[in-house]
Structure formats: C-alpha cells, structure tokens
Amino acid sequence: MATQEATDVYEEFEDHVRRLTYVGDAAGVLQWDQEVVMPEGGTPARSKQTSALSTLKHELLTDDRLGEWLDELESADLDPEREAVVREVRRDHERAVRVPSDLVERISETTSNALPVWKQARQEDDFDAFADTLEEIVQLKREYAEAIDPDRDPYEVLFEEYEPYLGLDTVERVLERLRDELVPLIDDIQDSDVDLADPFSGTYDEAAQEELVREALDYLGYDWDRGRLDTAPHPFSSGTQFDARVTTRFDPEDPLDALGSTIHEFGHATYTQGLPREEYGTPLGDSRDLSVHESQSRLWENHVGRSQPFFEGFAPSIADHLGVDADPRALYEAANTVHPDNLIRVEADELTYHMHIVLRFEIERDLIQGDLDVAEVPQVWNEKMEEYLGVRPDTDAEGCLQDIHWTHGSFGYFPTYSLGSVLAAQLFAAAEDDLGSLDGRVHDGVFDPLREWLGENVHRHGARYTTDELIREATGEEFTADYFLDYAAGKYRSLYEV
Amino acid sequence: MATQEATDVYEEFEDHVRRLTYVGDAAGVLQWDQEVVMPEGGTPARSKQTSALSTLKHELLTDDRLGEWLDELESADLDPEREAVVREVRRDHERAVRVPSDLVERISETTSNALPVWKQARQEDDFDAFADTLEEIVQLKREYAEAIDPDRDPYEVLFEEYEPYLGLDTVERVLERLRDELVPLIDDIQDSDVDLADPFSGTYDEAAQEELVREALDYLGYDWDRGRLDTAPHPFSSGTQFDARVTTRFDPEDPLDALGSTIHEFGHATYTQGLPREEYGTPLGDSRDLSVHESQSRLWENHVGRSQPFFEGFAPSIADHLGVDADPRALYEAANTVHPDNLIRVEADELTYHMHIVLRFEIERDLIQGDLDVAEVPQVWNEKMEEYLGVRPDTDAEGCLQDIHWTHGSFGYFPTYSLGSVLAAQLFAAAEDDLGSLDGRVHDGVFDPLREWLGENVHRHGARYTTDELIREATGEEFTADYFLDYAAGKYRSLYEV
Description:
2 copies of one chain form a homodimer.
Chain A: H1 3-36, H2 43-62, H3 64-74, H4 80-98, H5 101-123, H6 128-148, H7 154-159, H8 168-191, H9 206-220, E1 229-231, E2 237-240, E3 243-248, H10 255-273, H11 290-304, H12 308-322, H13 328-335, H14 353-369, H15 377-389, H16 414-435, H17 439-443, H18 448-457, H19 467-475, H20 482-496
Parallel strand pairs in A: 1-3
Antiparallel strand pairs in A: 2-3
C-alpha cells in the first residue's frame, strides 16, 4: 500500500478506534455513577443503559470495516506507535469477533443471575446451593476460551483477557516462587515472639478519617483538577487522563485501612493521570493491562505508604486528624503487622495476601483445565489454606464463597494482583537504581522525583509497549520476582526478628 | 400488513427505539455528572464522550430501517398506544433525516465557539462584539428550520423542537393576553402603597439551607429511593422514572430562593418519577414536551410552594433550620413580592417573569422571521423593558446579553416557560374541581391527593397523547390562559390591595 493510502486508511481506522474508546469511557462514567451516587431505585434503567452502550461498543469492535482496515494496515509500513495501535486493536477485535454473540449473551445472563444465588449461598454458608451455578459458569468460560482459540490452554486464554503479554508459564513460575519462598517466611513469623505496636484503639470519626486521606492525596501530589475522592463500598478508581477519580471506605476501628486503600487507588489514578493527553482515544493514550496498573497501586501503597520514612513524614497529619500522637515506628509496625490467621483476602496484610492469590490461582486454573471438579472446591480450598497459612476456615462463607470474581465469570483475574506486587518491587528498585535511595525524599514528603520517574518510564507510554517490553524498557531486565522476594524477606525478617 | 407481521415489525421497531432512548439517557447521566461532580479538567474527554454518544444516537435515529418500519407501521392497524409511539418516533426521525449532517455540525461548532464570545461580550458589556456571532447563529437556525420544512414559518418550526403540539398561533394568542392583562396589573402594583413583609435579614448558612430544602422535599413526598439532591450553579433536574435527580443552589441572603428553586425541580422530578416504569424506553414511558414538563414544576413551585397554606404548614421548619420565627403570612408575602424594577429574568418574581418571556419571544420570533436585524436587538430590548416593566437597563450585560439561550441556538425555548405557568394554573384548577379546594390539605402538609391526581391525569400517560389532547383529557377544556390570569389577578390584587 502506498504511503498516502496507508495514512488515509490509518486515519479512518483511528477515528473508529477513538469512537470505540469514547463509548467505553462513557460506560465507565455510568459505572462510577452507579457505584458512588446512584440511588438504589435506579438499577433497572441503568442496566438497560449500560447494556445498550456495551452492545454499541461490541458492534464497533466487531465491525467488518475494522477487520479490513486492520488487514490493510498490517501489510503497510507504519511507524512503531501506529504499529502498536494496530497490534492492540487487532487483539481486541479478534477476541470479539471469535466469540459468538449468543455465547456472550448466555454468559452475561448466567453471571447476572448467579449474583443473587452466590449472595444467598454465602449468607447461608451453603456451597451446594451455588455449585451448579458455578459449574455452569466454568463450562461457559471454557466454551468462551475455546471460541477464541481452540488450540491453546483455555486458562491461559482467559488469563490473557486481563494480562495478554506475560504468558501462563511466567505466571506459574512467579506464583510458585512466591509460594515456595513466602510460606517458610510466614511460618517463621508465626513462630516469632515479636509483638508489633498498635497505637490505635477505639473508633475514629469518619469525617476525621476523610480529612486525613484527603490530606494524604494532597501530600502525595494527586491532581485534584483532574480527579475527585468519594466513598464506595468496594474502593476503586476509574476515568481518563482528564478525570481520574478515586474512592475509599472507612472502617471506624482501623483508620490505616482507609489510608492504605486511598494510597492504593492514588497509585492507579496517578498512572491514569500520567497517560498522554494528546493520545486520548487510542491505545497510546490508554493504560497497559492489569499487572502494570496493579503495579502502580501497589508501589505507592506498599513501597511508599507502608514504609517507615512515609510515617516519619506523615505522622503529624495522623496526630492532627485522629488525635493519635504515635511514634513513626509504631505506625510503621501497625501498618505492617502480619496476620496469618486471617481468612479473608481483602483484609489480608501485604505478605499473606499472596497466599490467598496462589490458592485461588491454583484452584481456578485446575477448574478451567478440567483437573478439578466444582464439588471438590471447598475441600481443596481448606486444605490449601491450612498448607499455606496454617489456618482452616470453619465455613465456606469465610472460605471459597468469599469472593465475587468467579460469580462474575472473572477467571484469570486473581493472578494479576500478585503480579502487580511483584512488578511494583521491580520498578521501585529500578527507580532507586536511577534516583538513588528514595528514603530521604519519602521522609521529607518529596514525591515528585518518583512520580516523574514513573511518568517517564511507565505512564507516558500508554499501551505503546507490550507488558514484557515495557518492563524491559523501564528496568533493563526481564520480569522477575527477585526484587519482591528480597524486599519482603528484608522487611518482614527485620520486623519480626526472624 | 397482516396482524402477526405488524406485531413482528413493531417489536423490531420498538427494540430500536428503546436502544435510542437508552443511549440518550446515558448521555443524560454524563451531562448530570459534568454539571454536578466532574472535576474542571475533565472537559476535553467529556466533550469527546458526549459527542460520540450524540453521533450514535443520530445514527440510530436516522437509520434507514427505522424509516421503513415507520412506513410499514403507519399503514398497519395498531392500537392507540402503539400509534402514539409511531407518531412520536416519526416526528423525531423526520426532523433528524431532513437536516443535513454538515449543517448539524456547523451549528454545533458555531454555538460551541459562540460560548466564550458571548461570555466575554457580556462581561465587557459589548453587544457589538457578539453581534456577528449572533447573526451567524440566526442564519444557521433559519437554514435548519428550512431544511425541516421550507413551506412553514421558520420560527414555528424551531418552536416545535420544544413544544410540537401547541402551534405558534396558540403561543401568540396566549402571550399577547399575558402582555395585555399583566402589564396593567404590574402598573397598578407599582402604584400601590402596600409594603409586603420581609422577615429575612443578614445571611443564612448553606448547611442550614440545605437541611431546609431536604426537609421540603421530604415534606412534599419526593421519592429518595429514586432520586437525589445536589447543588449546581444553574439548578436543573434530570434522569428517568427510576432515577430522577434534582439540583439546587443557595443564595446566602435569600433562603426562599433555594426553597422555591428546589420545589420547582421537585415538580419536574415528580413528573419524571410518575412516568410508567414498565414503558421505560419508548415515548409511552417518556415525558410530554417542555410546556407540560414546565407546568409540573410551576404548579408545585407557585400554586403549592408560594401559597399561604403552604407556609402555614411549613413555617415551623423554616423556624427550626433558619432561626426565622416568622408569621406564615409574612413568609407568604416575602415569597410573593413583586419587583418590576428587576432586570434579570432568572431573578424575576412569578408575575413580572412573564414580561421577560414575552419580550424575548417577540424579539426572537422577529429575528428568525427576518423582521428584525441583530443590530437592533439592544434598542428593541430596552424599549420593550420600558414598555412592559417601566424600567430600562443601563447596560446590555443586564439586558439582551443576560441569557445563554440564543448562544446555544435555542430559539423557541423561551415561550415554553410561560406556557408552563399558564398550563399549571389550568391543571391546578382542574385538580381542585375534582378534589375540592386543596388549601386545607396543603395547610396540613397532605400532598398525596394532588400528586396522585397529577399522576393519574398527566404523569402516567407519558407521551401517549399530544399536548393539546393531554390538556383536554386532564381538564376537559382547550388550553386557555383564563385560569392563570384569574389566579394572578386574584392573588396579586389582594396582596397589593389594587
């Protein structure tokens, strides 16, 4: 194809892609509204609106012209940025056209109907009441994976919905290392006599906690002109580089929960705010997939917000708003206390969290690969909890029924949480390699150098690079769990003197 | 067409219509978000998202298949409800297909660019700086009207965008009567020696005012499960029968402003909440056009919220929240004080408001019909202000530059405000004809009978009837200004003893 012709085709193609993005982002606004401000009675209309946008988006994505443009552009001589756009859109287009729309509808209907079934089963601690539904979802997701690629491992195909560029072998390798190295560390911590400090007691007013987390967002450099903070039952962040919002929630007894969760969402939002504005509408202005996004939230949450230098700088604010005049060291210890006997993933500490993920990964992979029956899930869950964390749930409500993900049909999502933590450690080490130790700057409340380093090495690229390329570009190395395991061992062995 | 075939066609048609509605309502959520919660930096992305939805909606509305279904259904034997749906969709479809998309784009671009020009002209009190832009908008809107119907009066065609079923002759007849009968009444009031009470002085805390208007919404029976209250610089209501939200604003010196404005939006939202839920997505579940919508807001704002019985019941709440322990009569007088020397429409009282509308109507009609040059607008405006209200603006900023409507290209919108008031009086009279005087119930804070009467006679019909049919169904009469003029004369002659 001649250069001028390719340019013309590219422009038509790009207009279409932008439109697709805008419709998707409009749906994101509806979703934010539903979770944050919508009155309860609004659900029936909102479902219709969301579903109409989702159908329109699907039609734009599966449009025959899009396939033709992609064919033409793949044989043209494009610059690397445009090649990246073509690569990302091809991937989404292929996945969308390969799945028959009646299967999409069946999955949507089944998971939608599954929600109340799961809720009731969890409430009544009755896994059997949910088993048939879960079996149906597993079958549908296997069918879904097979429609996309009948020749590849179905779990890998599902996992690629969330993280397309790391490969199942990498995930398995990384998660096995986490299991093999963290289980003994957690064992040692359980045997430790050290009691970490906890300067909090009683309850803390929601308004005071909100002032505190707003101040934390200021302190870290959140751009309020392109964001806002609200509360939501399940904190999340959403939006675009022009409007990247965060949410949080408040536990009256545990103000560090809101603080950590807010800093986590700040990390996501800072990534989003750092995407190039002039590229809004194409993958060059969109974030990389879930592992990278999660690395940004975990980096700020754990490597900054759970560090001793952070509390050295931020302790006065905690004293101001909560009236807790604690030593920074005591705050640091409180933020890093390990609770191996905790059964609930979303309440887990930084360390044992990964065991919750490994367990879910192993179970969901085996379910999809056909190596585990749905009926066996409770037993396997409890055995693995005992093996990895030394604790056994008394009920399935506190065990295999606790998470919503499988009810949504989100098989392959869980591993991205741990991959994000692992990548956070690798990126933080690379940043310190370039900038020198960040302890002093974090102590002084100076976060610009880190934010700029992440902006330069991660955010500004959007989805220009694949995940593995982005990691190599930013760190000079392949993806590795070394940094995370070093960080975890160093921090927790020192805290617990083991 | 055979019955079964017509049913099948109707179903396909209705699916398409519902989808169109859902996309429009999704755009409504984005609009609410933009005006109420969006951070300032969000504008560039929001414009793209809104414009993408607007294009998709336009494509759905001008879809050739929709035209074919309409042709087929118009020759089929449908029940009256389905006939009404076909009638409403035909109207929107025709208007959309007749206007060339490049004209739509030129209007959108011109009005979008006009906004900062108008703002600056208003700020600098420089009409000449806005004149060329206004001229361009007038020309484009004439072109627009001609595209829709070259054989009809262009102003009537534009007016029908907002109120398709009352006809320009009716509007002219009604607005002339308002002018002819209200001008002498306002004259008499100006000559009156009566000073109405004003129990308010100083400033009132925004939080206290918000508690007060929330209590007013409770008191009137707003369904919070399907709505919410927020603040916005220009109060509005929006949403669906599942989620009908209101906004208000607070003037520290004038708490009755927020109260009146909130009750006004309550009227709109109560109409929306009263639309049949099972019909959501088609015109049967959508509101009738602007005159009817405005009649609902004005009925609650003026006939209920500005009545003496209302203040008899609600005075204790005003005392509670604002610390103003005033006589109900004094509150009634304060809420109904006439200010003929006020120059600003949005600050006008219930009575002189209509002179602001008549003036705008006469000017915009003459502009569109080619009987007035843009350059003459300031002079004609000032002359009419003097003639109708006995006051002459010193500046165009307080005169013909005060409203945003023409900058938006909204010619034909203004009259619906007065038509709404006129219809409110007619409906309120019909309700009292059926239910007996409502004074006692309003005094007692019992609003269910009125809300149910409106629900039964107006809300539940959606757009089943044309405006004129709906008025006949609800009141047993043709649309008439008699009731409004009786009400206005009775109320204000008594208040001012003239």
